[in-house]
Amino acid sequence: MERLHDPDLRGFASDNYAGTHPEVLAALAAANGGHLTAYGGDPYSDRLQALVRHHFGPGAEAFPVFNGTGANVVALQSLVPRWAGVVCAATAHIHTDENGAPERVGGLKLLPVPTPDGRLTPELLDEEAWGYGNVHRAQPLAVSVTQSTELGTTYRPDALAALCHHAHRLGLAVHLDGARLANAAAFLGTSLGALTTDLGVDVVSFGGTKNGLVLGEAIVVCNPDAVHGLSYLRKTSMQLASKSRFLSAQLVALLEDDLWRRSAQAANAMAARLRAGLDRLPGVTCTQPTEANTVLAVLPPGVADAVRERYAFYDWDRCGTVRLMCAFDTTDADVDGLLAAIRTAIGAGTGADVGAGIGAGTGADVPGGVPAGRGGTMPGDGALDNTGGRP
User: Fold this and answer.
1) First-to-final CA distance of the chain
2) Where are the domains of the chain?
């Protein structure tokens, strides 16, 4: 087949714009060939279960699915009945970027709570955890947290443990949207289980696509007593793959030899480099701590449009904030090129010294790293497109 794109095309729109990690492609090739039992009855699916138990605890079980929205909707349905409400942050992906799928498909009512940094607290949970026994109100029976959050912040283990304890005391199950759980664990220096099972999380949507997979996520059940009918819900929600070995093989590659951590560390390091460079540019304000692979910043008027001629990224809100995402294959050269473009656009010089003091390197040691190039302007997840509408 003829290649239809420029492989040197680079951008900062989303980590799911990146290609596939070479180790994942190798795993797919290794899983190919021959005839194996479909629907999870294959050795790669068995290996995945063993790895999930290793990372999340001896009672954990994985249910591979096609995408993150599917993982969230199926996981939430397994936790609560259709008359339930699910408390979440107002910035949560399930609320802002899944086109109402938890409500349309799952029949659940989302109960969003505004937060300053994307993180819920016991006190914020209490704002929606009420009305029990009132037939006119969806019953708050679960809380969904995102780790790392859509704003690039992370829950510290003690804070998340306190939230889980408070939720369970109120009778709420705890779902964790872990599309970027790997980035949070890499930033905090913890294991996956230490950020989930050990803290009282009941079920996790574990992300793969944003961390180097072709496609595929896994619903990870941490507390088997909290879920009901998940196997059937996965099928009725059209998330059960017949050739399951190819979903499982990718997740095996991610969980074996800590590829999940290596890739997340690479993305996080590039975000930290980008943040350090932005902090040195006049007129640029970063609005949240950079604790994963997300940087939110307010650029001077006109700068974003000028820089988008070369690099893709999104408007995050209507207040001038843009979102800049780094991926497992983002390089030093990519980051320094973006910083130079921003510097030039704000009229602060040529950007030739942008990398000084940030850290030397070409990005050659980043898994799957490729040279810097041009970016695009297509819309993507979690942000506003250039017309101000959600994609």
Assistant:
1) 30
2) 21-259
Dist CA 207 CA 334 (whole Å): 24
Give the strand order in the sheet containing 294-298.
Answer: 285-286, 294-298, 321-325, 314-315
Distance CA 216, CA 27 (A): 14
CATH number 3.40.640.10 given to 21-259: yes
SS3 296: strand
Print pLDDT tens along the chain (391 aa): 999 999 999 999 999 999 999 999 999 999 999 999 999 999 999 999 999 999 999 999 999 999 999 999 999 999 999 999 999 999 999 999 999 999 999 999 999 999 999 999 999 999 999 999 999 999 999 999 999 999 999 999 999 999 999 999 999 999 999 999 999 999 999 999 999 999 999 999 999 999 999 999 999 999 999 999 999 999 999 999 999 999 999 999 999 999 999 999 999 999 999 999 999 999 999 999 999 999 999 999 999 999 999 999 999 998 889 999 999 999 999 999 999 999 999 994 333 333 333 333 333 333 333 222 323 333 444 555 543 333 4
**Per the structure block, which two tokens stand in for 323?**
């979102």
DSSP state of 384: B
pTM attached to this predicted model = 0.89
